[in-house]
Design goal:
The structure holds two protein chains of two kinds. Chain A has seven helices and ten strands. By secondary structure, chain A is an alpha/beta fold. Chain A has a domain of 116 residues: 3-Layer(aba) Sandwich (Rossmann fold), CATH 3.40.50.300. In chain A, the strands form two sheets. In chain A, strands 6-7-8-3-9-10 form a six-stranded mixed sheet, sandwiched between helices. In chain A, strands 2-1-4-5 form a four-stranded antiparallel sheet, with helices on one face. The radius of gyration of chain A is 17 Å and the shape is globular. Chain B has two domains: 140 residues, no CATH class; 95 residues, no CATH class. Chain B contains nine helices and two strands. In chain B, a hairpin with a 2-residue loop joins strand 1 and strand 2. The longest helix of chain B is centred in the last third of the chain and has 31 residues. Classes of the chains: A alpha/beta, B mainly alpha. At the A-B interface, helix 3, strand 6, helix 4 and helix 5 of A face helix 7 and helix 8 of B.
Amino acid sequence: MIYPIEVNDLYYKYEGNLREILNGVNLKVVEGEAVAIVGLSGCGKSTLLYNICGIIPHIYKGEARGQVKIWGKNILDMKLPEIATKVGIVFQDPDTQLFSPTVENEIAFGPENLCVAREEIGLRIERVLKIVNMEKYRLENPNSLSGGQKQLIAIASVLAMETEILLFDEILSQIDHEGKIKIREVIKELKGEGKTIVLIEHDLDNLQIADRVLQLKDGKLEEFKDGETVGLNRA
Amino acid sequence: MNVDPRTKLVIVLCLSTLAIFIKDVLFLNGVLLITIIISLIFKTNMLQILRKIKRLLYVLLAIAVIQSVFSAGGRTLIEVGELVILTTVGLQKGLEFVIRIMIIILSATIITTSNSREIVQGLVQWKLPYEIAFMVSIGIRFLPILIEEIKDSVIAIQLRGIEIEKIPLRERFRVYSYLFTPVFVSTIIRAQKLSMSIEMRGFRAYETRTSYTVLEMSYTDYLVIFSSLLCTSALMYLYVS
């Protein structure tokens, strides 16, 4: 069976570090599944996501062993732009993801890079803005939006690339309560559309979106039991 | 006035060329007046921009004074004993410098009436590589954030009980040097995160890219460009002759 995401016995050590932050991670995510990964700060959750989307080893170097496959293809054999057509990632801080003068330009940036036709880009902008319910902000400067709205635009920008796999790296952590509710709704909708989702979460209340919850502990993934809430938040 | 960003770039180029080429206070005053009128036509927020660069203006004035003092020639205006402090030539050169810089700053405000994506697109349609145009726009976009970060770091220092305004200049420089490391590190981290985000959105995926924003020159644009070039040439000819 070919999985959208397959991680086999992954070990990873950052350059200059003595300790391996990932210590034999195994993960298989089936199509349309939403998997949440929890764990203490600094346990390697984001590192795992960076391995899945190719940021490691294509941008960050380090010592890696094991395999990461996207739809059966090893990410080492793929260039970052090729991975970008298959995997979309939204980061924690929306401020470092938005750089265009208007929301419309921001969303168009990804499809433009992928040489999508202009008319199609227009349709995608309309579509993703509708998904995140931000149609009326199309010509606004992203800088003038609230934290939650910025994160919704960051999500929309990734959605416009129409990737089948979506990775969310603690995207709710800097957002107010209202923003969290909106973003959770958007993730639920994306799950309904059949997207394969991996989300990193710190807040136990946000785990209800996921089909499966895993815990990253001592560099290994294991099934998460709700009793083990040490270091995790419940709002 | 709604014109193409490339037209605005041509106007800025013409005004800046005149500011550098002309070395006569009267002529420069004329160019400054033209620049102000054009800026008003484009409804730039001149006062707000001048307020923002207030500190830079003080530096300009200081340079102008230094230039005045060190440029000899003409009639002596101020002297202390045998030492000539200010001459008419020095005063003229100082004034020229201030006017010249004001023309360049005010003309640059015309560009700010277009958004950075339009400017990038204008440059790309002028065959400038997209990567270069994009880098410039990113630099401009993150400049205010960098300034905010420096301000935050200064506030953090002040909250620890150091009143920067009240300490001697030498000490003040030392305090400011403490800011360098945190601001530099956070800038690098921010740049890294931004580059990750850009790469993950397919930047440089292919040799070319499509563009949702497409600029088209109108007859007004061609007319404005032609008039700008013609007026610039005429003024230069008038000055030389």
